[in-house]
Input
Amino acid sequence: MELSQFREVLGAPVVNGDVNQDWREVESAYGAGLPEDYKNFISAYGPGCINDQLYIFHPRASGGEQGLRLSSLWEQVSSSYRELSRQDPDLYPYSVYPADGGLVPIARSISGNIVHLSPTGTGGAGWGVAVEMGGWVMIEQCFSDFLWAALNGELAIPILEGEARFEPLGNVE
Output
């Protein structure tokens, strides 16, 4: 999926960030390279909200309580899942970053669903998407294919509804 296809439905990117600068520190902390399609989208569009329903986090978003800094989401989700897994390991069977090979939280819906990158994607190679929404949905698509399907109402799960739009929120440092 090309970034230009998202321009058609979400409008022109608002950040046009430097992918190398945006992701160097994050990938060093994670210990692995994240998928190029995901990094290209986030670096182009920045922190924001899709369809008033899905908050997208950026590695260099301004911090603070209302900020959409990716490391803040990682810390919140990792801490929550660690505790939830202790209470009910059957409901939280997946490891989450910073665990080795853990899921990488990247977005949160207004209803509290968490979208993750899954480092074991299709057939054990590549990256897929995992959505925690009271249960787990594993989607064997790359991030851009997942987002495109969500924007077009082609997913079996209700992540995004309505006309596609992107609202930038906050700044990139």
Remarks:
- The chain has a mean pLDDT of 89.
- Strands lie at 48-50, 54-56, 104-109, 114-118, 128-132, 136-139, 166-168.
